[in-house]
Amino acid sequence: MTIKLIALDVDGTLLNDHHELTELTQETLIRASRQGAEIVLCSGRGPANTIPFMEQMGLDGYVITHNGAVTAQVQTREVVHHFAMDGQGLEPFITYCRTQGVHFDINTAFGLYVDQPEGLELQVREMYQNFMAEPLKLPQWADMTEPLAKFTAFGPIEQMNAVQQEWSTWNLPYYMTRSGDFFIDLMHPEASKGAALKRLAEAKGILPSEIMAVGNYYNDITMLTFAGKGVAMDNSPEEVKAAADEVTLSNNDQGVAHAIQKYVLSV
């Protein structure tokens, strides 16, 4: 069956390890779009630092962001769906991070908030620069009027392993996912890339069998298993590869272009 929608993770999938969208990958996506396939970027990033890649390719449509918590229209930047999380339940996680020295940020659809943006450590500042994110100062809860999309803890892999092990013993009111070696995300319990992709596909009348999803990490598994063709990058953990139907080349070997050429443009 013809692929009508291509859902693509961004970091570690669409981009290489230098956070670059290569010319070959870009040209391949444009060709697939001209052939009739809709391109939907599905990222742990927010809309503000996901939409620019669509604009760079001259593509309109939708992006699924914050690991599925926020779906936004590219041209208008309108939020068309939001799995808003309960901010009051975050207090124990904020306290844990502050007492254990774990960096965290709180995300609305288009805002990213931290305790002290002017005093960020170099590693943290470089991380935000790589993701094209500009952190703002976290206000008091009473002043936070926007719906919340995601809570993220960031740190060395050993620290994140310990945080994940600890939080896994809690009675979590949220969906917790590992979106990278250095990131743990908390979201609305129903939020995921797969759930958001399902909602978007149903709204557009597209069947799962008409969707190809490509990703490289644990937060991509729900969309890889929802899509009729789930493709894992070669740089994925083994559990992600096992959840996919196919494995393509790594992000540094332009695996997205290779997968689209094989499963979309060659049929």
TrEMBL record:
Gene3D superfamilies: 3.30.1240.10, HAD superfamily/HAD-like (3.40.50.1000). Pfam families: Hydrolase_3. CDD domains: HAD_Pase. InterPro entries: Cof, HAD-like_sf, HAD-SF_hydro_IIB, HAD_sf. This is Cof subfamily protein (Haloacid dehalogenase superfamily)/HAD superfamily hydrolase (TIGR01484 family). It comes from Paenibacillus pabuli.
